[in-house]
Automatic annotation (TrEMBL):
Signal peptide: none annotated. Belongs to the acyl-CoA dehydrogenase family. It comes from Enhygromyxa salina. Residues 232-377 form the Acyl-CoA dehydrogenase/oxidase C-terminal domain. This is Acyl-CoA dehydrogenase. GO terms for molecular function: acyl-CoA dehydrogenase activity; flavin adenine dinucleotide binding. Its EC number is 1.3.99.-. PANTHER family: ACYL-COA DEHYDROGENASE 6 (PTHR48083:SF6), MEDIUM-CHAIN SPECIFIC ACYL-COA DEHYDROGENASE, MITOCHONDRIAL-RELATED (PTHR48083). GO terms for biological process: fatty acid beta-oxidation using acyl-CoA dehydrogenase. It comes from the Bacteria. Residues 123-219 form the Acyl-CoA oxidase/dehydrogenase middle domain.
């Protein structure tokens, strides 16, 4: 089976035309400002039908399989920073999947369709100060009062948080239920009374992606803003992690290739001790090893995508791809910086921005250690807990 065809090539061309004309010429300016004009940029993609590739045509989408989303994620890696691609990925693969799959027709019309068109910017509200990868431990809660939910709490590290019009927010709604059965996803309009966006967070990388801490104090939201069934929010969130993690892995491919290409070019040109840096066996052998690892990583991403498109559960493969992505970005990025020598420590060098931005991959969307736990669980290799089998099921 050939994963990508002519239609994917046309999609890639369209994405790169937007990048070359409307994004890369302004990236340095946006990085310095600490934000990019999300509504303006998203509208460019929305006008070309690129923000709803996998969503139904009835809601403005293209009804294409997930391989097209992977192709787009790859091409977004041609943007000269990581912040803009990440923000787009939040819109297409993090805040909208549950809404598209389980939301009411009214919610889809009000929030999904404008988001696909690029008229609205969305964000996903899961992480909190005390609950990053530990999703079950969130504290933000919503109680019912008449026809409304009243939300109190806060969310942390919210990509698009300062410019977003709405949030797909995970909250506790069912008192007394188990941690995996007491959560719901609710659409929260961020202009609602009681929503407070903190000062933009100052990050190591992804500088042009605005990231906010958002507080909720007695925020009233109609109960009709509930996505799907009450108490199923954790399940819905886990379901969409397959796509989120595949997207993150695919989006890293082009960036890794570019870092490697920049390093080969620099080490070939840079003269030291009577020859090029690249002439040193350690350098060209190490670059060959990294190129091999990168090809193996791409093969894993494509295999996971192929199986997902065919309807298979790829939780294990997506977790493996995300894990490999996090580790390879660190290893490759560190080597590329090292082989650039002193120039690899200068902010003016594009390799530095790529290095800083890529460091998030091993943390966001589930840290490497969480991916290892998921893989071990699905392999049946986690240590047994008293009263359980290797599968985690009770023995009684």
């Amino acid at each position: 089976m050939q994963l990508f065809g002519e239609e994917h090539a046309l999609l890639r061309k369209t994405v790169n035309q937007i990048i070359d004309k409307h994004i890369n010429p302004y990236v340095d300016e946006w990085e310095a400002a600490g934000a990019f004009p999300a509504h303006e940029v998203f509208k460019r993609f929305g006008e070309q039908g690129l923000l709803g590739l996998k969503y139904p045509e009835a809601h403005g989408g293209a009804a294409l399989d997930y391989s097209y989303s992977v192709a787009m994620a790859e091409e977004l890696g041609n943007i000269n920073c990581g912040g803009v691609p990440m923000a787009i990925g939040v819109q297409t693969d993090m805040c909208t999947p549950a809404l598209a799959r389980f939301g009411s027709d009214d919610l889809k019309k009000t929030y999904l369709e404008p988001s696909i068109a690029g008229d609205m910017v969305g964000c996903i509200g899961v992480s909190e100060v005390g609950a990053g990868s530990d999703v079950a431990n969130i504290k933000t809660h919503a109680r019912k009062d008449g026809d409304d939910f009243v939300i109190n709490g806060g969310k942390m590290w919210i990509t698009n948080g300062y410019q977003a019009d709405w949030m797909c927010c995970l909250v506790n709604t069912v008192e007394g239920a188990a941690a995996h059965r007491n959560k719901s996803l609710i659409v929260v309009p961020l202009d609602a009374k009681g929503v407070d966006r903190s000062t933009k967070l100052d990050k190591l990388g992804m500088r042009c992606s605005d990231t906010a801490q958002i507080f909720f104090e007695d925020v009233r939201v109609p109960q009709r803003n509930l996505i799907g069934q009450e108490g199923y929010g954790f399940v819905y969130q886990m379901m969409q992690f397959q796509e989120e993690r595949l997207w993150a892995a695919a989006n890293s491919v082009r960036g890794l290739e570019r870092m490697l290409d920049m390093t080969v070019a620099y080490t070939r040109e840079r003269q030291v001790f009577g020859g090029s840096v690249l002439d040193n066996q350690y350098v060209h052998f190490k670059l060959a090893e990294l190129a091999t690892e990168l090809e193996a990583f791409k093969a894993l991403v494509y295999r996971a995508t192929e199986l997902y498109v065919s309807g298979k559960d790829v939780t294990k493969l997506a977790s493996m791809a995300k894990l490999k992505c996090g580790r390879l970005t660190r290893e490759l990025g560190d080597c590329c910086i090292q082989f650039h020598g002193g120039m690899g420590y200068m902010n003016e060098n594009p390799i530095v921005r790529a290095y800083r931005d890529s460091r998030l991959v091993a943390i966001g969307g589930g840290a490497d250690e969480v991916m290892l736990g998921i893989i071990c669980k699905l392999m049946g290799t986690l240590p047994r807990q008293p009263g359980t089998t290797r599968t985690g099921k009770g023995t009684s």
